[in-house]
Amino acid sequence: MVAIQFPVFVYGAGGHAKVILDILTMHGIENIVIVDDDESRWGSRLMGYEIRNSKIALDEMRHQGIHQGIIAIGNNRIREEKGDQIQKMGYELISAIHPTAVIAKTATIGAGSAIMAGAIVNSDSVVGENVTLNTACSIDHDCHIGPCAHISPGAHLGGTVTIGKRTHVGIGAVVLPHLHIGNDVMVGGGAVVISDLPDGVTAVGVPAKIIKNHQSKL
User: Is the pTM of this model over 0.90?
Assistant: First the structure.
């Protein structure tokens, strides 16, 4: 993981950002700048921090000794776009890992990832860049989580599962071992996935069934 240098910025000012701010402050990081694209939020405060105009702030911060930040946006595709944007500007992505998360010594965590309270990442699993592992989810051994994916609260992946980039695994969903879930997949909350899922589909239910193919719209 990238070593964090103070100060840092958080890109986003919604509920996802609140959780990430909480994690950063638990690690003693207090010198934080919040930036957001929504002009209705500019000048207001989130957890005591002023929200700044992202377009202006991102240009200014490079000259103010701020070189690192994290994208605190729940939408996978937007998080990917903003992550690419700030890296092209020369910024470095940092990760935010809650102190109660359990991460195996042999696991790999990509830059920009957010790992929330009670999440578990077991042996030899690889978590890609800009991933969200939400509250109390579990990633068993030898899994591979693609960039900008989101594993929701209470979701569980068996061993040797592959999750594609930008895929969303809903709250409380279960993916059985050795399965491959493609890119841009939506797995509904509470679903139980018992077979591979191709790119660009939505699957819900127990067992999970494909109800929509949105690949053509991506």
Answer: yes
